[in-house]
Amino acid sequence: MATAEHTKELLKRVRLVELKTRGLSDHVFGGEYHSAFKGRGMTFSEVREYQPGDEVRTIDWNVTARFDRPFVKVFEEERELTVMLVADLSGSGEFGTVHQLKRSLITEVCATLAFSAIKNNDKVGLVLFTDRVEKFIPPKKGRSHILRIIRELIEFRPANTGTNVGAALRYLDQVIKKRSIAFLISDLMDSGYEDALKLTNRRHDLVVLRTQDPAETELPKVGLMQFTDPETGAVRWVDTSNPRVRRHYRTEALKHHARTRELLRRSGVDHAVIGTREGYVRPLMQLFRKRELMR
User: Fold this and answer.
1) Per-domain boundaries in the chain
2) Phi, psi of 219 (to 5 degrees)
3) Other beta carbons within 10 Å of 254
4) Would you tell me which of 93, 110, 119, 270 could form a disulfide with 103, CB atoms 3.0–4.6 Å apart?
5) How far apart are the C-alpha atoms of 126 and 148, rounded to whole Å?
6) The dihedral of CA 284, 286, 288, 290: what is its sign?
C-alpha cells in the first residue's frame, strides 16, 4: 500500500510532467497535430448565402431556388478521433546515459501527444507492454484521464522485462475495432514483428517513435566494463579500451538501425527517431509537418 509520502512524491512528478508537456502541446504541437491527423471526413454544418470565391459545387440548389438567390452548404471536419499510445516498458527502457532514461523520454512524449489530442477533443487510450501486454487503459477524454495515463507511465512496474512488439500490436487490433491513430513508442529491440506492423498499419493510422540513446551506437572508452542485458539479465565483460571492440560494436549497432529503418519503410509506417540526447520536440515537429504536406 502506498504511503502518504510516496503518493505526494508521485503527484509532484505527475504535475511536473504535466507542466512541461502541456505547455508544449498548447504552444508548439497544437496546430501541427491538428493538421497532421485529420478527422474521419466532412459533415454538414449549415447553409449560408453565397460569397465571392465560394466553390460552385457547394451551392444548395433547393435553398437557392426557394429564396431566389444563391446559397451554399458549409461543411466542417468530423474531428473526433481515437488516439492510442502503445508504450514499451521493457527492461531496455531503464537505460539512458545522457539527459534521461528512455522510459522517462517515453513518458514525456506520451504526455505531450495526449494533451495535444484532448486539446483537439480526441479520445486517448494506453497500452503498456513488455513481452506481453501489461496494462490497457481504454480511450477517454479529459484532463483527469490524461493525468491517470501519466501516473501509470511514471509508476507502473511491469512483471516482465522482455520485448514483444508483435504481441502488443495484435492486442491493439483486438481491443480497438474502430480505426485510430496509434503511436508505437519503443526502441524496437525485437524481431519478427513485421507482419503485425503491416496489419496494424492497415487497420489504424500507425506512427512509430523509435527511442534511442547515444551509448547504443558509440561505446565509451572507459576500460574493462561489466554489461548487463536489462531484458535477459545476461552479464558479460567488455574491454572498451580496445578500438576493434568499439568498431565492431558501432558497426553492429548501425546495421541494426539500418535494418529497422528498412523494415519500417517496407511496412509503409510513418516514423521518427527520438533520443535521450536530442529529445522529441524537433523529430515530432518534422514528422507532423511531413504528414501535413503529404495530405
Assistant:
1) 13-36+81-294, 41-78
2) -80, 125
3) 11
4) 93
5) 10
6) negative
Q: How far separated are the first and last CA of the chain, in Å rounded?
A: 50
Helix axes 143-155, 4-24, angle to 10 degrees: 120
Name residue, grid cell 522510459. 103
Say which residues have a Cβ less than 8 Å from residue 294's Cβ, sequence separation at least 6: none
And the C-alpha cell for 170?
495484435
Domain 13-36+81-294 has CATH 3.40.50.150: no
Query: Alpha-carbon distance 55 to 68, whole Å?
Result: 18
Q: Which three cell numbers stand for residue 11?
A: 503527484
- Is the Cβ–Cβ distance between 224 and 239 less than 8 Å? yes
pLDDT tens-digit series, residues 178-236: 999 999 999 999 999 999 999 999 999 999 999 998 888 887 787 887 777 777 778 88
Q: Which amino acid is at 248?
A: H
β-strand pairing of 133-140 with 181-186: unpaired
Which of the residue ranges 88-102, 184-198, 245-259 has the most confident prediction, judged by mean pLDDT? 184-198
Short-list 4, 172, 152, 153, CA closest to 84: 172
